[in-house]
Design brief:
heterodimer, A: mainly alpha, globular, B: mainly alpha, two-stranded antiparallel sheet, 11 helices, 3% strand
C-alpha cells in the first residue's frame, strides 16, 4: 500500500464513492415531494435561480478555475442551450401537447435539456478550438465577441422570436430537476478534476509549457474543459428557460456572463465548494440590492459598480477568493478527513 | 466606381480612429503581454472629457479649428492621467501575479469605468457639441469628402507620426522597445521599467482620448457604453496586424475599417459588428501571428 492514495480527495471508488451523491439526489427529490410546495413563492424563485447559478458557476469554474483559461461567454452558451431546449418543447407543445404531460413530460424535459447542452457544447468546440490552440488570452476576447454575436443573431432570427423574445415556454423546470442538475454538475466536475483528465486540466493551469513537456496534449485538455463547461451552461439555459417560461436575448448579455465570472472568482478559482457558496450568496445579495433600489433608499443601480469594484479589490487583496483552491472538506479537522492528502493540492504557483 | 471610392473614403476614416485605439492596445500588449480591456473605456472618457470641456469653454457656440485642437489636447492629457492611474492602481500591484488575475482585473476596471460612467454621466446618450463645423462637402473626381472625415484622418495621421517618432527616435522609445523585448534584462541595464510602463500607458491612453474626441466629432452621440465595441474592434485590428507591432496595428485597423465599410455597403449592415469577430477567429485559425507579427518563442 502506498502511503498516499493516488486519487486525491475522493478517496474511495465506485459505489462507495457514489453513495453520497446518490443520497444527495434522493434528498433533492424527497424535498421536492414534501417541503417545496409550502415555500414562500418569492423565496422559492430565488432558490431556483440560486440552483441554476450554481450549475453555471461550477461549470465555469472548470474552465476559468481548474484549467486557467478565461472564458467570458458563459451566458452565450446558456442562451444557445436555452433557446434550443425551449424551441423543441414549444414545437412539441404545438404538435403533441399530450407528450408534455406527466411522466412523458419529465422524460421529454431531460431529452431537451441534454440536447440543449450538446448543441451548446458543439458551439463551444467551434469557438474554443481556434482560440485555445494558442497560448495567451485570446479565448477571453473570442468568447466575449461570441456572446455578442449570438445575441445579435438571436435578435435577427424571427423563428425564435427575435427581439420580442420567446414566450409561453412550458413550465417543466421543477425544484427536483434544477437541484438534480446541481448535484450532477457538481458530481461530474468533482470526479473529473480528481481524475487523470482533471490532472491534465490542473497542469495546464499551473504551467502550460511544463505540462506540454510532460506529454500533456494541452490543446485537447483545454478544449475538453471548455466543451464540458459549455455543455452544462447549455443545460442551465434549458432549466432557466423552462422556469422563467420566457426567453429574451437581452437576458443573456455580457452582464450575465460577468455575474457568473464574479461568482467563480469570489468563491475561489479552483474550488467547487467556493463556487457553490458564492453562487448562492450572490443570488441572495442581488435580491437585497434590488430591494435597496425598489424601496427608494437609492435610485441608482449600484449592482454592477459594486460587482466590478469587488472584482478589482479581490484581485488586489485576495486573488484566491474566499476558498482559494480548498474545498469545504479541507476545513474539517484533520482526523475527520479520511483518506486525504494533507493539503496536497498546489496553491497556484505565484510567479 | 465612384460609389466604390466613396466606401473607401468612409472605411479609411473609420479605420483611422480604430487605429488610434489599436495603437494603445498593441503598445500595452507589447510591453506587458496584457490585454488592457479598460482601453475602450479610456476612449469613452476621452469623448466625455471633450464634451464637458467644450461645454465649459463654450466652444459649441464658437466653433473653430483651434477649439477642436484645444479640446483634443485636454482630452489627451485627461486620458493620459487616467491611463497612468489605471496602471498604477490596478495593474502595477499585480505585476508578479498569474496572468489570469491581471486579466480579470482588467475586465473589472473596464466594467467599473462603464458603470460608474453611467452613474456619473447618466446612461442616456449625450450630444457632442459641434466644435468644428466646416461648411459644405469637398469633392474630388465625383467622390464626396466630408471635411470632418478629412480632418479626422489628418489628425490621426499626425498623431501616429508623432508616436512613431517617439518610439523609434527618442530615448524613451528605445527604453520602451527594450522593456518589451525583455523586461528583466532591461531592468538590469538600468532602465526604470515601471516608469517606462507608465509612460506607455499614458501614450496609449492619450491616443485613445484623441480618438474619443474625433469619433464624437463624426458621430456626435456619446454614451458611457460607447467604448466597448470600438475597443474590441481595435483589439481585433491589433491582432490582425500582429499584436505588439505598431505598424501592424495601423494597417490592421485600416483594413478592418475598409472591410466594415464594404460589408455595410454590399452585404448587410447588421453584420458590421459580427465581422470583426469572424476576422479574429479566421486570423487565430490561419495566421495567429497576424500580418506583421513575428513568432515569439516561449522561454521557460
Amino acid at each position: 500500500m502506498s502511503q498516499f492514495p493516488l486519487t486525491h480527495p475522493g478517496g474511495a471508488h465506485g459505489f462507495v464513492a457514489a453513495w453520497k451523491w446518490l443520497a444527495a439526489l434522493a434528498l433533492v427529490w424527497i424535498l421536492q415531494f414534501t417541503l417545496v410546495g409550502d415555500l414562500d413563492p418569492y423565496f422559492f424563485t430565488i432558490l431556483m435561480y440560486a440552483g441554476i447559478n450554481v450549475v453555471l458557476a461550477v461549470s465555469l469554474n472548470l474552465v476559468n478555475g481548474f484549467t486557467g483559461q478565461f472564458s467570458m461567454g458563459h451566458a452565450g452558451f446558456m442562451s444557445i442551450g436555452g433557446y434550443t431546449a425551449a424551441f423543441i418543447t414549444l414545437f412539441l407543445a404545438e404538435r403533441e401537447p399530450a407528450l408534455l404531460q406527466g411522466m412523458s413530460g419529465e422524460l421529454v424535459f431531460i431529452g431537451v435539456l441534454l440536447l440543449g447542452g450538446i448543441v451548446a457544447g458543439a458551439a463551444g468546440y467551434l469557438v474554443g478550438l481556434p482560440s485555445l490552440r494558442l497560448k495567451g488570452d485570446y479565448l477571453a476576447i473570442v468568447t466575449l465577441g461570441f456572446g455578442e454575436i449570438i445575441r445579435v443573431v438571436i435578435l435577427n432570427v424571427n423563428a425564435i422570436g427575435g427581439a420580442r423574445g420567446l414566450p409561453n415556454i412550458p413550465a417543466l423546470s421543477s425544484f427536483g430537476w434544477v437541484f438534480s442538475w446541481v448535484v450532477f454538475t457538481t458530481f461530474v466536475v468533482w470526479r473529473l478534476v480528481n481524475s487523470s483528465h482533471g490532472r491534465e486540466f490542473l497542469s495546464v493551469r499551473e504551467d502550460e509549457i511544463a505540462a506540454e513537456a510532460m506529454g500533456v496534449n494541452t490543446t485537447r485538455a483545454k478544449v475538453r474543459a471548455f466543451v464540458i463547461g459549455a455543455f452544462f451552461a447549455g443545460v442551465a439555459g434549458g432549466l432557466f428557460a423552462h422556469y422563467l417560461r420566457y426567453l429574451n436575448p437581452q437576458t443573456f448579455d455580457f452582464n450575465r456572463s460577468f455575474e457568473i465570472i464574479i461568482m467563480v472568482v469570489l468563491g475561489g478559482m479552483g474550488s467547487i465548494s467556493g463556487s457553490i457558496f458564492a453562487a448562492v450568496f450572490l443570488t441572495f445579495i442581488r435580491e437585497a440590492l434590488r430591494y435597496l433600489k425598489d424601496s427608494g433608499i437609492t435610485q441608482l443601480d449600484y449592482r454592477m459598480v459594486i460587482y466590478a469594484l469587488m472584482l478589482i479589490v479581490l484581485m488586489l487583496t485576495r486573488p484566491n477568493g474566499i476558498f482559494g483552491t480548498r474545498e469545504i472538506g479541507d476545513l474539517l479537522p484533520a482526523r475527520l478527513r479520511r483518506g486525504r492528502l494533507p493539503q496536497g493540492r498546489a496553491e497556484g504557483i505565484i510567479r | 466606381m465612384i460609389e466604390f471610392f466613396q466606401h473607401v473614403v468612409n472605411g479609411i476614416s473609420v479605420g483611422s480612429t480604430y487605429a488610434l485605439i489599436a495603437l494603445g492596445y498593441t503598445m500595452v500588449f507589447g510591453i506587458l503581454q496584457l490585454i488592457n480591456f479598460a482601453h475602450g473605456e479610456v476612449f469613452m472618457l476621452g469623448a466625455f472629457i471633450g464634451m464637458y470641456s467644450s461645454r465649459y469653454f463654450g466652444f459649441g457656440e464658437h466653433p473653430s479649428l483651434w477649439a477642436l485642437l484645444a479640446i483634443l489636447a485636454l482630452a489627451m492629457v485627461g486620458c493620459a492621467i487616467m491611463g497612468f492611474l489605471i496602471e498604477r492602481l490596478a495593474y502595477r500591484p499585480l505585476r508578479r501575479s498569474p496572468r489570469i488575475n491581471v486579466l480579470i482585473t482588467a475586465v473589472g476596471v473596464s466594467l467599473f469605468l462603464q458603470f460608474s460612467g453611467q452613474l456619473l454621466f447618466g446612461s442616456d446618450p449625450k450630444f457632442f457639441p459641434q466644435v468644428f463645423q466646416p461648411s459644405g462637402d469637398w469633392t474630388l473626381g465625383g467622390v464626396r469628402f466630408n471635411p470632418l472625415q478629412v480632418i479626422v484622418f489628418c489628425i490621426s495621421i499626425v498623431l501616429m507620426a508623432i508616436l512613431q517618432t517617439i518610439i523609434f527616435r527618442t530615448r524613451l522609445g528605445r527604453a520602451m522597445r527594450a522593456v518589451s523585448f525583455n523586461h528583466d534584462l532591461a531592468s538590469l541595464m538600468g532602465i526604470p521599467t515601471n516608469a517606462v510602463i507608465s509612460y506607455t500607458f499614458m501614450l496609449g491612453s492619450a491616443l485613445a482620448g484623441a480618438a474619443g474626441v474625433l469619433v464624437g466629432l463624426i458621430y456626435p452621440k456619446i454614451e458611457p457604453l460607447m467604448g466597448t465595441m470600438p475597443g474590441l474592434k481595435a483589439f481585433v485590428a491589433a491582432v490582425l496586424g500582429g499584436i505588439g507591432n505598431v505598424t501592424g496595428a495601423v494597417v490592421g485597423a485600416l483594413t478592418l475599417g475598409l472591410a466594415e465599410a464594404f460589408v455595410v455597403a454590399y452585404y448587410a449592415p447588421t453584420f458590421r459588428d459580427a465581422l470583426a469577430f469572424i476576422i479574429l477567429i479566421l486570423i487565430l485559425l490561419f495566421k495567429p501571428t497576424g500580418l506583421f507579427g513575428t513568432r515569439r518563442t516561449e522561454k521557460v
